[in-house]
Amino acid sequence: MFKIPIFTEKAKPVGERCLTDTNTKLRLKFSPYYQVVEESRGVDIVVGGKRMVMMSSNEYLGLSHHPKVKEAAHAAIEHWGTSSCGSRLSNGSRAYHVELEEELAAFLGKEACHVAVSGYLSCMASLSSLAQREDAMVVDKSIHACLVDGARLSGATIERFTHEDLQSLESVLQQLDAGQPKIIVIDGIYSMEGHVASLPQIVELAKDYSAFVVVDDAHGLGVLGRDGRGVVDHFGLTNDVELLCGSFSKSFASTGGFIAGDRMTIEYLRSSSRQIIFSAAISPSCSAAALASLRVMQEEPEHREKLWENTKYMQGLLRSLGLDIWDSPTPAIPIVLGSKEKCYFVWKSLMDLGFFTVMAVSPGVPVGRDLIRTAVSSLHTKDQLEQFAEALKKSCKKHGVKMAHG
Predict the structure, then answer these.
(1) What is the three-class DSSP state of 188?
(2) What single DSSP character describes residue 326?
(3) How many whole angstroms separate alpha carbon 375 and alpha carbon 366?
(4) Domain 67-299 -> CATH class
């Protein structure tokens, strides 16, 4: 039987949209998803004619309006037009793709790189053609959906271990046949929880059990590591991780994605992955914006320094309220409220007070860990962060969320 989504349209009275939560039968007047941003200038946005502060964007370094990034995108369109109008395999590969690939591979410390139209497809491609039916894909339960889909398409046996639980991971590895090919799949930074993967211990287990390691570092690039080289570089394990994949839609202020690794593996994926072969090439402007962001990231460290200054300040504000932020040490900061109802009403209250956030509920997060997801940017001011904390305090009190303080 067709599965009903979490929120489904119930009725459309004149002038309003009503939704019903199919699990709680809660009647909602406003959808918490697909909110349309009408204007955007960094974290300053307009929704429904109302000026708001964006508190859940992944624009960690605030580069989407950086003069060098915009100039590069404009120049690429002038020179190349708006699109290559084809896949990389057939007629869509261009010099600007190769330039980005070479600089990104060198930045990441890998032999080769392939850039594609989507971060989702890049991460999916990193797994779907890599493993076979006799192989084992050992995955953290909280990996991104793109990796889950890639693992499923590979046909390999999928073995899940408890999120960031090394004993659970080793237990799974111990139960597998010693000669069976194994791939351990993790995120560098988990986007909902904000957790940093325990990569040193995971790499040691991979060596002990002869496993290949794939890391989706979409949220780690620009945030951790030398000049923002990501989680793998942060731990000094570039040579111990076989494949890195990720997205340009976070710190790189663009759209698209990449896979980086040894040259032989990248060439194999280029000729074997359906996600690569049958997808149109990344556009000139997106390629140029990503490359310009990569260069700014290295030339202007002040953006990352400001990001971490804001992150620590935000974490302090939330902890002072006694809210559960799931021990996130990164700019991706969840506010765990524990139920869909509380998440919806706090989200709506924050919208009314001028702050745009995103609610994440089960099954997207574990049952009982329903949350409001926030993400700090280098563009936020201390005043904005303080005002958000005050709005959050009011919203939580209004809707019965227990706080240890305030």
Answers:
(1) coil
(2) T
(3) 20
(4) alpha beta
* Tokens describing residue 308: 């971490």
| 16 φψ region: left (φ > 0), alpha (ψ -120 to 50), beta (else) | beta
pTM of the model: 0.92
State how far the Cα of 126 lies from the Cα of 143, in Å rounded to an integer.
14
> What backbone phi and psi angles, to 5 degrees, belong to 218?
-55, -40
Between CA 258 and CA 90 the distance in angstroms is 19
**Dihedral, 219, 143, 392, 387 alpha carbons, nearest 10:** 0
Q: Are strands 257-261 and 37-41 parallel, antiparallel or unpaired?
A: unpaired
Tokens representing 288? 């140029």
What is the model's pLDDT at position 403? Answer: 86
Name the superfamily (CATH) of residues 14-54+301-398.
Answer: Aspartate Aminotransferase, domain 1 (3.90.1150.10)
Tell me which residue of 40, 69, 71 sits closest to 56, measured CA to CA: 40
List where CATH 3.40.640.10 sits in the chain.
Answer: 67-299
Per the structure block, which two tokens stand in for 209? Answer: 């059990």
Q: What pLDDT, in 10s, does the model give residues 207-263?
A: 999 999 999 999 999 999 999 999 999 999 999 999 999 999 999 999 999 999 999
- Rounded to a whole number, what is the distance in angstroms from the first to the last CA of the chain? 47
Helix axes 119-128, 145-154, angle to 10 degrees: 30
Between the CA of residue 301 and those of 160, 227, 378, what are the distances in Å?
38, 7, 11
Ordered DSSP codes for 91-147: II--HHHHHHHHHHHHHHT-SEEEEES-HHHHHHHHHHTT--TTSEEEEETT--HHH
